Amino acid sequence: MGSISLFLQHLANGISLGSLYALIAIGYTMVYGILRLINFAHGDIFMLGVYLTYFGVLYTSIPWWLVFAIAPAVTGLVGILLEAVAYKPLRESPRITILISAIGASFLLQNLGIVFFGGRPRAFPVPRILNHVVKVRGVSINVITFIIPVVTILLLIGLSYFITKTKTGLAMRALSRDYETASLMGIDINRIISITFFMGSFLAAMGGIMWGARYPQLMPLMGVMPGLKSFIAAVVGGIGNIAGAVVGGFLLGLGEIMLVALLPRLTGYRDAFAFVVLIIILLVKPSGLMGSGQTEKV
Amino acid sequence: MRDKQRTDLAALLALVCAVVALFLANKYLDDYKIRIINLSGIYVTLGLSMNLINGFTGLFSLGHAGFMAVGAYTVALLTMPISMKEMNFFFQPIVPWLANVEVGFLPALLAAGLISAFLGVLIGAPVLRLRDDYLAIATLGFAEIIRVVFTNTQSLTNGALGLKGIPNYTNIWWSWGVAFITVWFVTSLIRGSYGKAFMAIREDEVAAQAMGINLFKHKVMSFAFASFFAGVAGGLLASLLGTIDPNMFRITLTFNILLIVVLGGLSRITGTVISAVVVTVMMEALRFLDESINLGFIEIKGVPGMRMVVFSIILILVVIVRKAGLMTRLKGRESSYAEN
Which SS3 state, helix, strand or coil, does residue B312 take? Predict the structure, then answer.
């Protein structure tokens, strides 16, 4: 195999990993845009989405493609529930308070995962149609590597239509621009926040299904690392900015794969890469690549 | 002044009672219970060190597991007998400058604290200008980086295999001695001018700066003190357990300390001490939730993970019930998260 085709293979892997980061990162950035809250439990919502799909495919008679649509919707409802239980009572509290609640919620979901799903890893039931290797000009690549970016782009088009063209989307943008003023304009804040959590969790679960198809090993703690990395992607792109989250996700996914591909000696440091990027970004340009450089209000 | 004398007297009295209680416990209790008492002492130190930075200085840091890892590995590598090192590092030999080192427990603990504090300064200097949630995630990131580095530096830390056969120096006197020193240190620090400066920074950074407080210096100082004690506590833990590996020092460990600090009350010293003991004992007492118990005639099935479910729920409940009162502040002004 020539080095060009090898490079192309890495590129494809990087893009597909980046797509997944992007999908999860959107949930972080949308919530942060409106509530100024790092939803620590988002990575665990992602995990929940994967498990719901797993049980839906294996233990119900619903066809797998329908489960792939229902499970994210259920995950979205869990997202709404999470907000209502752990964040809503604290909406007027100091930011640290709600951050602690978010950390608590994250641990709760992880450990509920251990209680109900068991700590033993499970194998994700990947439909045969999504899981076979094709050869494209000498490069052998699993078909899922191509499906992931395509589905991601479709979801992003849908999201951007929703945000820019619908009234709810307009309300979301207004809330993230100026929470106080927007709430005075007759926007039903509770409804918008619930919808935001639903959409973020839905997209995370969609990412989760594709993650399961790509890396088919399920564990209750599987959401921690992708969650943290996607959050970093959101910060890199400029938190609160949806396009930024997508760009950040792709950059991080590509960077991670390329690091391992080009410098195999650093393979063990793969998980540290994202954090190094995070710290550099926070020090050099805390508002992120596409952030609006807002200064802290006194 | 009389008030201060009275509290000092009360503190002395409490100390004497505690020492007598520890002495009795050491004499009459079995190994398992003594181990829990040791753990409580270590968690008192950890809780106070986290409270110093998260509570008193108002800097939300989640890096404790990383500093503990540094302390634990320092103590492990410095106190381990030379022959034991050879057995541990069968995969790849240890770096030569550490191969023939074996020092006493006290110098090793001090080294653990100092190296950890030095690292705290190195990390703190750049990241402490971040605020709230950004600081939290950056310190969490550093803790993760430390863990990943320790997993990969085979010839220094033995990588993912971890270290076994660390001499068990930690006993009740070490763990609680350090805990008492920490209580004394944090109390006098908070009473003095540095403590006032820390709390001024927590209340209002801009006002504190206008009053002539050097923000950078005080933040880094608070962070360094906190990492010093986290490092020492990590060292005590390593010596208590006898085996360590990088995966011990995940964010779960930080979560336990955060739980102690939040339950005891941010910027509360007595509260932290009590909650450290209560949480540690409860963690053990609730172990039955995770394991099956055989009562002879009936077997109750335990569910792994249930214990932490209980603790997560307690944490969320406490946060929701106390809401704004979580931070003991001088005045009620604080930007709510939906505002800025």
Answer: helix
Residues in A touching B131 (Cβ below 8 Å): 296
**What single string gives the DSSP state of each residue in B56-68?**
IS------HHHHH
Residue among B133, B313, B336 minimizing CB distance to A38: B133
How far apart are the C-alpha atoms of A40 and A123, rounded to whole Å?
Answer: 26
Instruction: Give me the residue label for tokens 């990943």.
Output: B148
Residue B53 DSSP class: I
- Residue A295: what pLDDT? 45
Domain membership flag for residue A166: yes
pLDDT tens by residue, B42-89 = 999 999 999 999 999 988 899 999 999 999 999 999 999 888 888 888
Closest A-chain CA to B140:
A275
Q: Is the model more confident about A48 or about B92?
A: A48
Contact B324 A92 (CB under 8 A): yes
What is the CA angle B269-B272-B273, rounded to 5?
90
Check CB contact under 8 Å for B305 and A119.
yes
Is A113 part of the contact surface with chain B (CB cutoff 8 Å)? yes
Asked if A81 is an interface residue toward chain B (Cβ–Cβ < 8 A), one would say no
In chain A, residues with a C-beta closer than 8 Å to the C-beta of B138 are 278-279, 282
Q: Does B311 touch chain A (CB under 8 A)?
A: yes
Give the per-residue pLDDT at A190: 92
Stretch 150-209 of chain B: residues touching chain A, C-beta under 8 Å: 151-152, 206
CA distances in angstroms from B156 to B72, B74, B103, B232, B248, listed in the order given: 13, 10, 17, 19, 17
- Write b or e for each residue in B155-176: b if 16 or more Cβ atoms lie within 10 A of its Cβ, otherwise e: ebbbbebbbeebbebbbbebbb
Task: Work out the average pLDDT over B19-37.
Answer: 86
The domain tally of chain A equals 1
Tokens of A7: 């490079």
Q: Which residue has the higher pLDDT, A149 or B327?
A: A149
Q: Which residues of B touch A28 (CB under 8 A)?
A: none
Question: What CATH number should be reported for the domain holding residue A26?
Answer: 1.10.3470
Residue with tokens 């969320």: B316
Do residue B206 and residue A180 have CB atoms under 8 angstroms apart?
no
- Domain limits, chain B: 2-251
Mean pLDDT of the residues in chain A: 89
For residue range B145-166, list pLDDT tens digits in order: 999 999 998 888 888 888 988 9
Domain region containing A125:
3-284
Instruction: Please indicate whether, in this complex, the C-beta atoms of B319 and A100 are within 8 angstroms of each other.
Output: yes
B286, B337, B340, best to mutate vs chain A, most A CBs in 10 Å: B337
pLDDT grade for B325, boundaries at 50, 70 and 90: low
Q: Across-strand partners of B293?
A: B300
What counts of helices (H) and strands (E) characterise chain B?
Answer: 15, 2
DSSP string, B174-234: HHHHHHHHHHHHHHHHHHSHHHHHHHHHHH-HHHHHHTT--HHHHHHHHHHHHHHHHHHHH
If one counts every other C-beta atom within 10 angstroms of the C-beta of residue A82, the result is 24
Q: For residues A214 and A16, is the Cβ–Cβ distance under 8 A? A: yes
Q: Is A119 on the interface with B (CB under 8 A)?
A: yes
